[in-house]
Amino acid sequence: MKQRIITAIIAAALFIPFVIYGKVPFTLLVLAMAVVGFYEILKMKGISIFSVPGIIGLLTLIMLVIPKDWANEVVHAIGYSSILMIIYGLVMLLLIYVVLVKNKITFDEVGFILLGAFYVGLGFHYLIETRNYGLEFVVYCLLVVWTTDSGAYFVGRKLGKNKLWPEISPKKTIEGFVGGIVIAVIFAIAMQAIYPFANGYVSLIVITIFASIIGQMGDLVESAIKRHFDVKDSGNILPGHGGILDRFDSLLFVVPLLHFLHLFGS
């Protein structure tokens, strides 16, 4: 526990200044975290990121992560009509590689590489876009994820009796799941009272409940992936906390959906 607390304090001290400043430093940091996250998910499957398929997958990831203005610069430099065409070209290249090596890499592995690139890439892309939209919104997203996680842990530990999904995550409870939502709503209301940023309290509460549920499902998805590959943590970059995916699994689900559904009325 002591190691976890020290790591969390150091990680927060390094991460929060980037969040506050935003711009290029924040984008580069998020891009670096996405690369590490992609490395972690490929490692679970036993695929090297330095192999030809791994490199093609990495390029696909980068095209997915970079913000819109950077993507436009890439498109202009290469002469393509859109970033989607570049991604499509990379997918085709990966499929052609399977043929060239006579199925030494399977289509299952190709599918895993591409799914991993989209899973990690889009989540971190929308983290960048959320910060570009406004500091208060990325703070809100982080607040919801962190308070949900903490609330679920402490409420579950204190009151938890009924298992939520023991086949996927044995320690999670229904009481913790509900407690995480309640704690997230309380903190979101407090943030709104201090710095109004949402379109009223009713919409904020609805959004927060939705985001908290989705965030906890993101956590369960990553738990399911780890259980499938029989690994405890996605990585060991953060002592006591595991890897990048272990820390950002909920956020990878929350930020894209808040954008897709235009829940902030943008």
Short description:
It catalyses: a 1,2-diacyl-sn-glycero-3-phosphate + CTP + H(+) = a CDP-1,2-diacyl-sn-glycerol + diphosphate. The protein has 266 residues and is mainly α.
SSE layout and pairing:
Blueprint: H1 2-21, H2 23-45, H3 52-65, H4 68-78, H5 83-100, H6 107-133, H7 135-159, E1 163-165, E2 169-173, H8 174-194, H9 201-229, H10 244-248, H11 251-260
Antiparallel strand pairs: 1-2
Top keywords for this entry?
single chain, mainly alpha, two-stranded antiparallel sheet, PC_trans
Describe the model.
The protein has 266 residues and is mainly α. It folds into two domains: 1-133, no CATH class; 134-265, no CATH class. The protein has eleven helices and two strands; from the N terminus they run H-H-H-H-H-H-H-E-E-H-H-H-H. The protein has helices spanning 2-21, 23-45, 52-65, 68-78, 83-100, 107-133, 135-159, 174-194, 201-229, 244-248, 251-260, and strands at residues 163-165, 169-173. A two-stranded antiparallel sheet has the order 1-2. Strand 1 and strand 2 (169-173) form a beta hairpin. The longest helix has 29 residues, at 201-229. The chain is globular and about 55 Å long. The model has no long low-confidence stretch (mean pLDDT 92). Pathway: Lipid metabolism; Phospholipid metabolism; CDP-diacylglycerol biosynthesis; CDP-diacylglycerol from sn-glycerol 3-phosphate: step 3/3.
